[in-house]
Every structure is written in structure tokens, then in C-alpha cells.
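**Protein record**
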Amino acid sequence: MSTSIHADGQWTERCTGQPDPSALEPQAFRRFFERSVDPIWILDPHTSRVLECNQAAVELLGADTKAALLGLRPADVSPPVQPDGSRSTDRAAILTALARAQGGARFEWELQRLDGRTVPVEVVSTRIPVGDGDVFFVVSRDIRQRRETETALAEQEQLLASVADHVREAIYRSGPDHELMFVNRAYRQLFGYPSLEALRQIPREQLYADPTRRAALLRRLTEEGGFENEEVEFRRRDGSTFWGLANAVVIRDPRSGRPLYHVGSITDITERKQAADAVRALNATLEERVAERTAALQASEARFRTLVEHAPEAIVVFDGETGRFLDANEKALRLYGITRERLLACGPADVSPGRQPDGRTSTAAARDWIDRALAGEAPCLRVGASPPQRRARPLRGATGSPSRRRPQPRAGQHHRQHGTSPP
């Protein structure tokens, strides 16, 4: 560190081994000017003509030498009209006056190379005092690559917006604080709002039939990073409601992890919801009808059993395939003189003599009677009743009903039997 005292008594300090910046100004500036990768121009503030330029400026405009550019004005190396529609000469005069008044200006400009091709540049013009006057120190940076990137991004955004506007699902994008940034056409139509601006003017809770649902979904976004297939009841602009299947996810900065924005979708499931409710209502009604029908059948069966049990005739039910008894009333049990358990283990032939009065065996006669009953006839059969291990006695009357596991032509038909057994 070196220290010196000026004539005015002020102390100055600087690191030893480093040159005095004031002594390096002309040399350093010249090296910077010549070696800069950005084109640099020095313009006369009064005539706007080029007083000096570096090699990067020569290459930008496609000139052979620096001498080809000296003395030219900005309008001489520009197309007649700028991209905004203004004439280059008029706009150059306006920007020169602005830089003179403010001491500098930053703007975008379009140059024209000597081969006729145009080059977009970003210009920074600074007024610098020199001697008794001043000059404009102008740096023009080629932004062709940036423009191409911006154009590609704009085309991609336009494509995505076009796709988003032609899908049926409502799609939206919101910022880190959940402010709406984008909604597609389906979103606007679903909620009944004409534009994104109209949606931004209302509290988001107003879009929910139950505003507390939004708070719960936002908590899930914060804690879980998203949610899927949430059934939410929303409210339209006109006050009507609809059911939507909502999905959303948080998009975070890959380095910091902070939320950048949120992307979500809403699918209208109102019709599906109504159909499901209708099916549930129908099932509930059907269950009620089945219960009512079951109760009615049970009541009918109870009434029928009461009638059978109190009938003055002996009534039995046969199995149509095996020919065995399946059920009998008390009159039949008394007629045959055996218990219900023993009777249900028998068939008609077991409680009859070996042969019937017509000479047929009781087994053949009983089979023929059952088959005729299953065929829909109402046969009358004279049988001889002979209970097991008891002496046969006359049958005063019995009614039998055949039962069969396969479908019957006339199920449940009863048949009267009359007969006597030999003494």
C-alpha cells in the first residue's frame, strides 16, 4: 500500500504494484474498443455520422474495411422502415434527440447489412464529453439468436394455447400465490366468464359452491404437491352449480424448490354424477320393492300353509323325480298313522299294498299318477293305504301335490285321491 499527500492536503491510498488508472485510460479504452465482441460506434452528436467503429461493427454489417462505414449515418445502414412501421430516418432523429436530452438511451433497432440482409440489434447509446464537445458512444448487440428463441417460444405458446383451447377439459395455470395466469376456452365456458380478466376480478372462492373446499385443496397443494380426481362442486357466474373432477400439481424450481406456478384441470362430471345418483336411487327403490315382494310372498306362503294345515283333506307334496313325500299336513299324518319324519322318508308305494285294485303294482300306479299330474292333468286315483308296520285301513280322502326340481307345466296343482285298502 502506498500513500501520498496532494497539494490540497487530501490523503490518497492505492495498492502498490498496480498502475495508475488515469495513466491507463487512453490505452485501456483503445484495447477495449478494438477487442470488444459487441459492435461499437462513435457518432457525431450533431450530424449522427460515424466517426469511428471497431472490427465487430465491420463484421456485423458485412463491410470489407472500416473505411466503408466511416461517415455513414444510422439511416444509411438501416432498412427504410423499422419493424414498428416508422421510417428509419424519422425514428433515428427521435432517438438521437432522446439520447442528447437524457444523456443516453436503450432501444432495439434493425440494421441492414451491405448484402441486403437485416440484423436486429439492441442499442445502448451514451453521450460522453470529449474536449470542448461530446460524442455518442454506441454499443449495438446482435440479438438474432434471442429473436429466434423468442419467435420459437411464441410459436410454441401459440400451439399450446391452440391445443388447450380445443380440449374439452378446463385447463388453468396460476402463479406462486395462486393468482390466475392462464385459462383455456373450456374453462371460461364452464364457469360462464367471457375472459381471463373477468375471472381475475373476482375472489377465487366465489367459484366454489362450498368456499371451504378451496382452502382444503390449497393445503393439499402445499403439503402434498398436488391432488388427483377430487370431486368438487363449483359455482358458475350465473349462480348455477356443477360437479367437476379436479386435478392440480405444483411446478417447482429444480434448484431452489420454490413454487413457480400451478397447473390444473377440471372435467365436468355433472351428468355422470346425476346418472350415479339415479342408479343409487333406483337400487334403493328396487331393494324396497324386493323387500315388499318378499314380505308379500312370505305372507302368502303363511296364509297358504294355514289353509293347508286346517284343510279337511289329507294333503301331501311329492318329489316329481324320486316320488318321495316332501311335506304333508296333519290330516295326512293322521290318515297314514305315522310321524312326519317317517312319512318324509317314504313314497306312495311304501304306504300302499303291493298291488292296486286294477292289478298294477302300487309303485307303477304311483309313478303313472305323478307323471300325469306333472303333464298338467288332474288324475283321480283309487289307492290302498297301508302304513308301515300297521294294518291297512280305509282311506277316506287324500290330496297329493307332486313336486319336481325341474320346471313343471302346472306347479303347485293339487290332486284328490280316493281309495280303500283291503280289510
